[in-house]
Design brief:
- The complex is a heterodimer of chains A (267) and B (525).
- With 267 residues, chain A is mainly α.
- Helices cover 66% and strands 3% of the residues of chain A.
- The longest helix of chain A is centred in the last third of the chain and has 32 residues.
- By secondary structure, chain B is an alpha/beta fold.
- Chain B is 32% helix and 21% strand.
- In chain B, a hairpin with a 2-residue loop joins strand 11 and strand 12.
- The longest helix of chain B has 18 residues.
- Chain B starts with 16 loop residues before the first strand and ends with a helix.
Chain lengths: 267, 525
């Protein structure tokens, strides 16, 4: 996981944009898509996002490798919506209790595309943004308290370590005779014990890390920043890009007449 | 090499330490961790702090670093402890502290950012920070291009333990502290890492002239670098506290000559001292074959799923053939990162082989099949016992006695052996204690005892002597030599040559794999 987050080999244009600008752009797109379930807005946004891929150094292959759980989840969500939602229009497929009609297929597709269109910007953001730079931007530009931001950043580094520790504790407990075999209840209890072991180690590590940080003068007081988080002309373009995609999605759906707010009753 | 005029020596003002009747009681504890400490350390002095565990050495360092917390949260401070005549809490950055666990000495994920972190917190201007970062990385030898230095954006997670500790030192140097505090900085490192860190500390002290206080069990590592040894003793404050915290104080040779017996008795690793151990009595040749590996390739990583394709992990070692014989020790050695532990864990049936096989002979498998990885946990523990490097990873109950009874209870036999183990490993007085609250040596002894309670024929130990004092070391080595004579097979991963020479047997040396070559082998398999 830690290697997956490394951006050292990525020299794409968007890696140079300010993380906060990217963050706001992604937020805009996601917000619009969260407002309406419809095919047109979702597919417009999706097309716009796909166009941005090369700028973030992403390829379809990389996207699949990093985001396949999300992509499969979106597809499954779409599929189940299609077979389970109320039928309307011509029936396309009827297998016992499952049926797919024109209406439900459309809804399912809309659901799937919307899921993808919401997931993609997040993957896009993470694949061209270093967590340290994001923290710098949040503390220096968004003026979030640095104690909180840097504390979270340091803790995030421990998460990767904890994944390794989980594996080690699992083996160490197997060597004590606690196996992942047996009834679901036994497995559940074994899992609980392993989680407790991990918790103990996590707390130990976290308190040692806290001592390290405090001993390096970390606290609530003023500090300087070795890395200045700056805006450039690129960031204006990033914002414009986000706005354009969001607006295009709304306008396309409006003009096609498919736009409807999620909280309004369908039809 | 930085030019002489940019040297830190011009900026660093060595710190003076003065403790007068100083004591500290942690919140929730009945007695003081350190009591009645009278100690003056002059600016620029280099002091090695010795003493048995429980003498309050770490507490003292934390106090000097100003990270001990405030008095009043149920904690108690007596007397005074001053750095340059001021309370350490009031002057952030005057002292820099390095602790034992390298993983928690790194704060940020890029090399340069991590070094800059302390200086940022001290409000050093940006241009000055990067000057300091360059210089500090040079000083600790992580930026020296001749020695294959690292770029500023090098991921800190890719560093070895010794490199992480040197990185921590660089982060401390960038704060320009007058006092450098090292709390067992090399306890978790292999011998090469120990020297790396020691030499880096020496160079930096020569350059800056800062005051040094180091706590470490292995005296020989630091003896030539320090000019004073202070021996602390635990003082109990319950009886009014008449024992002073400082037992001995003076130049290294004098103190070591005066206190040699006392220090060895307390388990301190005094130079030139190898604790007496029980010699192997039987033939060290070995008997029946219990476990063998063939063309084994190992990795800690599991096969990864990338979409629809499954990528097998890149093995850290491949083509390993080994035999484990009854009554014989097999010692796995080699530098860090060579895959020693990974090999041992695979041999012990805890990791799946990437390719090749681990085969249990009939004498060991006893009807459970030939592949230890496929055994159920309970089948495993009565055949192969594994002691992990970190004892806490293996604790499964909240009480020492339950911990020991755990294996036998699940197996349905062997409970009679528990008493013997309790006595043999001096855990009898601790039966009701919580395993997590034991000292390092006690935890190690308990972890060995719990695994042995299931009566395995093969015992696998991962760095069993790491960070142990000389007493625990000797007990462990003697105990294992006894087990070997009784026919148990002992596989240990260790850097400790004295330890492996006590056990005898065969050595298997692993070198960091030629990654390319082993990758191809695994790909073909």
């Amino acid at each position: 996981m830690r290697e997956a987050l490394s951006l050292r080999s990525n020299n794409a244009l968007l890696t140079r944009a300010n993380p906060l600008a990217k963050f706001v752009s992604v937020f805009l797109i996601t917000l619009v898509l969260a407002l309406s379930i419809d095919l047109v807005s979702a597919s417009t946004a999706l097309l716009g996002e796909l166009a941005l891929f090369p700028l973030a150094g992403l390829t379809l292959r990389l996207l699949w490798q990093r985001g396949w759980p999300l992509i499969i989840a979106a597809a499954l969500g779409g599929w189940s919506t299609a077979i389970l939602s109320a039928d309307s229009g011509r029936i396309l497929l009827d297998v016992g209790i499952w049926s797919i009609s024109e209406g439900s297929l459309q809804l399912g597709l809309g659901f799937m595309l919307r899921g993808l269109a919401i997931a993609l910007p997040a993957i896009l953001l993470m694949s061209c943004t270093d967590p340290t730079d994001l923290a710098d931007a949040l503390a220096q530009k968004a003026k979030l308290p640095h104690r909180f931001v840097l504390g979270t950043l340091a803790a995030l580094r421990l998460v990767g370590l904890m994944a390794e520790e989980w594996q080690t504790i699992g083996m160490a407990r197997r060597a004590r005779g606690v196996g992942s075999h047996g009834s679901p209840m036994q497995r559940f209890r074994a899992m609980l014990g392993q989680s407790f072991g991990l918790l103990v180690q996590a707390i130990r590590r976290a308190s040692r890390l806290a001592v390290t940080m405090e001993a390096r003068g970390f606290g609530g007081g003023p500090r300087t920043w070795a890395r200045e988080s700056t805006y450039s002309r690129l960031d204006a373009w990033v914002l414009v890009g986000g706005l354009v995609i969001a607006a295009a999605a709304v306008l396309a759906a409006q003009s096609a007449g498919t736009w409807h707010f999620v909280w309004l009753k369908q039809g | 090499m930085p030019s002489p005029d940019s040297g830190t020596s011009a900026v660093v003002r060595p710190a003076a330490i003065s403790a007068q009747g100083w004591g500290w009681r942690h919140a929730g504890r009945a007695t003081q961790a350190i009591h009645a400490l009278d100690l003056d350390i002059r600016p620029g002095e280099r002091v090695l702090l010795l003493g048995p565990s429980g003498a309050g050495k770490s507490t003292f360092l934390h106090a000097l670093a100003g990270v001990l917390g405030e008095e009043g949260d149920d904690a108690d401070e007596t007397g005074s402890l001053l750095v340059d005549g001021v309370s350490p809490r009031a002057q952030r950055g005057r002292a820099g502290l390095m602790q034992q666990d390298p993983e928690t000495q790194v704060v940020l994920s890029r090399l340069g950012d991590d070094v800059a972190f302390g200086a940022e917190n001290l409000c050093v201007p940006r241009e000055e920070i990067w000057k300091r970062v360059d210089e500090a990385l040079d000083d600790v030898g992580l930026r020296n291009s001749a020695a294959g230095g690292f770029a500023l954006d090098h991921p800190t997670s890719a560093l070895s333990g010794g490199q992480k500790q040197r990185l921590a030192l660089a982060g401390i140097l960038a704060m320009r502290p007058g006092l450098i505090l090292l709390d067992e900085p090399t306890a978790n490192l292999d011998p090469a890492g120990v020297l790396e860190v020691r030499d880096a500390v020496g160079r930096c002290l020569d350059k800056t002239g800062a005051t040094l206080v180091v706590v470490e069990h292995r005296v020989s590592v630091w003896k030539d670098l320090v000019d004073r040894i202070v021996v602390l003793q635990p003082g109990s404050s319950s009886e009014g506290g008449s024992t002073p915290a400082v037992l001995l104080d003076g130049d290294p040779d004098t103190v070591l000559a005066q206190a040699r017996d006392m220090l060895t008795a307390a388990g301190v690793w005094v130079p030139g001292y190898v604790p007496a151990t029980r010699p192997r009595s039987g033939a060290t040749g070995g008997g029946e074959l219990l476990l063998a590996t063939q063309e084994l390739a190992v990795s800690r990583k599991r096969a990864r799923r990338r979409g629809f394709t499954t990528i097998p992990p890149v093995p850290v070692q491949a083509g390993l053939d080994a035999e484990v014989l009854a009554g014989q020790a097999l010692t796995v050695t080699g530098p860090n990162g060579a895959g020693k532990s990974t090999f041992a864990l695979t041999l012990a049936g805890l990791l799946a082989p990437v390719s090749g096989t681990v085969t249990a002979a009939v004498g060991l498998s006893d009807g459970a099949g030939t592949d230890p990885f496929k055994w159920k946990a309970q089948q495993l523990i009565s055949r192969i016992g594994t002691v992990f490097q970190e004892p806490e990873h293996q604790f499964v109950t909240g009480r020492v006695l339950d911990e020991l009874m755990f294996g036998p209870k699940h197996l349905g036999h062997g409970e009679d052996r528990v008493d013997e183990l309790l006595e043999r490993l001096r855990l009898g007085h601790l039966v009701d204690a919580n395993p997590y609250t034991l000292s390092g040596g006690e935890k190690r002894r308990l972890s060995v005892a719990t695994v042995l309670a299931a009566h395995p024929r093969v015992l696998v130990l991962d760095e069993p002597t790491f960070g142990q004092d000389a007493n625990t070391w000797a007990e462990l080595a003697s105990f294992l030599s006894e087990l070997l004579d009784a026919g148990t097979s002992v596989v240990s991963v260790t850097h400790d040559q004295e330890f492996s020479s006590v056990l005898g047997g065969t050595e298997m040396r692993l070198e960091p794999a030629l990654q390319g070559a082993s990758r191809q082998e695994a790909g073909a398999a």
